[in-house]
Amino acid sequence: MIGVLGELLITAGVLVMLFLGWQLWWNDAIMAKEQSNAASEISQEWIEQDRLAQAEAEAEASASPDPDDDGETSSATDFGDPIVAAVPGNADAFAVLYVPRFGADYHRTVAEGTGHDVLNSTRLGIGHYPGTQMPGEVGNFAVAAHRSAYGGGMHLINELQLNDAIYVQTADGYYTYRYRDMEYVSPSVVEVIAPVPNAPDAAAVDRLITLTSCNPLLSTAERIIAYGVFESWQPTSAGAPTDLAPIIAAQAAG
Amino acid sequence: MYLALWRVLPGPLWLRILLALLLLVGALYALATWVFPWVELLVNNQEATVGSP
Fold this sequence. Notes:
The complex is a heterodimer. Chain A is built from three helices and eight strands. Chain A is α+β, with helices and mostly antiparallel strands. Chain A has a single domain (1-61, 87-254), classed as Sortase, Chain: A, CATH 2.40.260.10. Chain A starts with a helix and ends with a helix. Chain B contains two helices and no strands. The termini of chain B are far apart. Chains A and B meet through helix 1 and strand 7 of A and helix 2 of B.
């Protein structure tokens, strides 16, 4: 009888270990792959939509040719203030995040809301804090993702280095942010996602992006907060920023 | 427990090893497909957001 009890206890221990392995690596890898594929799909869809819209506009404009348009999109143009999209409904995908520091093929879908329906989704993965600003808007575009398990959208957030590019692609275009600094806070510090982080009453003048995730790794005791500042934006028709273009092209190739 | 299971398995040694491995693979598949996803919902305490309790 003791033998049976011992075997049951060992089995229980093995099951717990198996579950952790499954959650942190096996299912994590599967979800990361699924989220990545879903993000590629939505990104390609936006580019295709824009291509069709451009072709349509060109067909209409051919009657009255524009002297500036010689068929080639000009580079290094100032596109003015970025387009700010309307706030989407809960769990609606509206952006794709690219952080080359997280890996050349890293891309994840950003959806509205930070509930489990977004962060634990096999399609989405990154949640936009409701009430914070949209990409390109003056204020703070704040998003959250898991550090480990569920696809681990922010697994390598601690590896960000000064001036690292953080790209946000939407149906309208590409918003480039540059990583600036990091902060570690307790989970209750909501001031980090204020329009001016840590100064909730101040009026925003800068366009910021804030990434939040768990810290330390495999724990939920603290939150790791990464801030970036807006650098530039360009509409979809102008193509992706130089450093992002090969990543987008790789997506198109599958 | 596992010894009794081993005794129940029929056939020569190679067949019993094969059957035992098949049982193990079946158990792992059932765990990964049905049991672990269900357990994950029960123990979901992973939070990545600020402002959460």
